[in-house]
Design brief:
The chain has 310 residues and is an alpha/beta fold. The chain has two domains: 2-138, Rossmann fold (3-Layer(aba) Sandwich); 144-304, Rossmann fold, CATH 3.40.50.261. It contains eleven helices and 16 strands. It has helices at residues 8-16, 33-43, 90-100, 117-133, 157-160, 177-190, 208-217, 234-243, 257-267, 274-284, 292-304, and strands spanning 2-3, 6-7, 20-24, 49-53, 61-62, 65-66, 80-83, 104-107, 136-138, 144-147, 152-153, 170-174, 194-199, 223-228, 248-252, 287-288. The strands form four sheets. The chain has a seven-stranded mixed beta sheet with strand order 11-10-13-12-14-15-16, sandwiched between helices. Helix 3 links the parallel strand 7 (80-83) and strand 8. The protein starts with a strand and ends in a 6-residue tail after the last helix.
Length: 310
């Protein structure tokens, strides 16, 4: 399986196995998100190099790390950037990342297609930059990823407190950041932890279907859980689901009219009809969950039935 001529494992590796991370929009204010996300990455035990980036704090230290004015000023190669700046600054930041040769970017900021035409135009610019450069872009309007096999967690400080004793076999793909963190929280309560997590947000370029393909190929993933607001490439999604023997469990947003409205306003998604979704699940072999709790419980039960790796 390939994404633009490269295997999906090769293309998305900088997203899940980065050797270095720059947090753009890092802050020295403990109340700011730029501080919380930087601290979360550090406290979760990530062992690669971490670089704070903020022109206002260039030359100073944040949490013991030297801060740079822009990512292109960092002397070392950067695999992954976490962009925590205002939506209007994201395009310029991405252009600097291209100049630096950054391989993957997570865009935390909201304020794009989900708010209207102006945001939609900015999202189109993001899409154009990613396609021209080949950079993997996750988001905008997303929390990012976690890979518990390498102590990687960009989901924020609250999630950093949930570091498990060992990773599990469930991998989650979610359009909702809130549900993503809730999944980790429930994992802690039940003491049954995931393998990897991806919060995809608006999916300017990298989609839920792309992440699904990665998790199908990923040897550390045994069960794939999904919270879905919409599917951008239905045919490819169905083909991937039918191609795998890994259990697939999904919770679909938009089962009611109010749910459809919430899904659209959250990530600029169109939820689609529940009748079509039911047919997709039947054709693709997807197990449907009726609630968030059931999504977790079904995934956990299926993971418990897997044979041990090796």
């Amino acid at each position: 399986m390939t994404m633009e001529g490269r295997s999906v494992i090769e293309k998305l590796r900088p997203l899940f196995y980065p050797k270095s991370i720059a947090v753009i929009g890092a802050s020295d204010n403990p109340m700011k998100l730029g501080y919380l996300h930087l601290r979360g990455i550090i406290e979760f035990g990530y062992e690669g190099a971490v670089y704070p980036v903020n022109p206002r704090l260039a030359g100073k230290e944040i949490l013991g790390l030297k801060c740079y004015a822009k990512v292109s000023d960092i002397p070392d190669d950067i695999d992954l950037v976490y962009i925590a700046v205002n939506a209007r600054n994201v395009v310029d930041v991405l252009k600097d990342c291209v100049k630096k040769g950054v391989k993957a970017a997570i865009i935390f900021a909201g304020g794009f297609a989900e708010i209207g035409d102006e945001g939609r135009m900015m999202e189109e610019e993001i899409r154009a930059i990613a396609r021209k450069s080949g950079m993997v872009v996750l988001g905008p309007n997303c929390l990012g990823v976690a890979n518990l096999y390498v102590n990687l967690n960009t989901l924020g400080l609250g999630a950093s407190l949930l570091k498990p004793p060992e990773p599990g076999r469930i991998s989650l793909i979610s359009h909702s950041g809130t549900l993503t963190v809730s999944f980790l929280t429930l994992s802690t309560v039940r003491k049954f932890y995931p393998s990897k997590i991806a919060s995809t947000g608006n999916e300017a370029t990298t989609t839920l279907t792309d992440i699904l393909e990665y998790f199908i190929e990923d040897p550390d993933t045994g069960v794939i859980a999904m919270y879905i607001e919409s599917i951008r490439n239905g045919r490819r999604f169905i083909e991937l689901c039918k191609s795998t023997t890994k259990p697939l469990v999904a919770l679909k947003a938009g089962r009611s009219e109010s749910g459809k409205s919430a899904a659209k306003s959250h990530t600029a998604a169109l939820a689609g009809s529940i009748e079509v979704w039911n047919a997709v699940c039947k054709q693709a072999g997807i197990i449907q969950a009726e609630s968030f709790e059931e999504l977790y419980e079904l995934s956990m039960t299926l993971a418990c039935s897997l044979r041990p790796k090796g």
